[in-house]
Amino acid sequence: xxxxxxxxxxxxxxxxxxxxxxxxxxxxxxxxxxxxxxxxxxxxxxxxxxxxxxxxxxxxxxxxxxxxxxxxxxxxxxxxxxxxxxxxxxxxxxxxxxxxxxxxxxxxxxxxxxxxxxxxxxxxxxxxxxxxxxxxxxxxxxxxxxxxxxxxxxxxxxxxxxxxxxxxxxxxxxxxxxxxxxxxxxxxxxxxxxxxxxxxxxxxxxxxxxxxxxxxxxxxxxxxxxxxxxxxxxxxxxxxxxxxxxxxxxxxxxxxxxxxxxxxxxxxxxxxxxxxxxxxxxxxxxxxxxxxxxxxxxxxxxxxxxxxxxxxxx
Length: 314
Hints:
The chain is of the alpha/beta class. The chain is built from 10 helices and 14 strands. It has helices at about 40-50, 65-75, 115-130, 150-160, 170-175, 190-195, 200-215, 255-265, 270-285, 295-305; strands spanning about 5-10, 15-20, 30-40, 55-60, 80-85, 90-100, 105, 135-140, 165, 185, 220-225, 230-235, 235-240, 310. It is globular and about 50 Å long.
């Protein structure tokens, strides 16, 4: 796999992860560990891609003291990085999780970005598209950013014949569908917000992936956490992959590992069904690890044979 995979994180963060013994309302919890690291869906994905042996380039913004600290944290990561300098500080996100897999995420909205800053992000990405295999557009947009920003990026990638994965939420997700990404990977909450309906039963989830597919993307991967994924694909119809039961330690970041493993697998020519199994294996293996620790290829390989795939007849 010679061509690099690009990841874009417009709204990165310093991730502060606090692990507690148990999360309960109106009672005390005891902190077991606190860690800080450079975060953002695209940065997490680049880590996993690198550990799987792929060539990854992470494009992200960096501003002020928090940006400098993020760049310091990223020095130990071996993937290529491109920092687009911005005037304002990047955000800090707080995640509190317990041994039962419960978590609370408290995310800052992120810095305001000027039109020239957005232009520089676009230029940095477009410059790298030539000769790349995939572009992973990951995470939220700060408030005030043009809601069609991701749409423009996806269309630019299509012009360069670069495959795309979109992993975002809210209006950027809705408008991003117009850019006809190769894959969108919402979780259950993101899909419910997009379709403005609760998704409770299995048949509702199957219906949801088919509805989202009609909105523009070539394939839809609906991530269901410990229940695996349901996906609508152009090549193999509707598929369901279920992971083996495990004791989850921290599920934060498992979705990013899943996205990276799916793209890694597809980039080396695997069928979509295999890519989904690798995605579920990587996500499941990551949720067994403490903090925001991503699974490597060896850890995913242990889970992969135990994933179960079904073709859903609709």
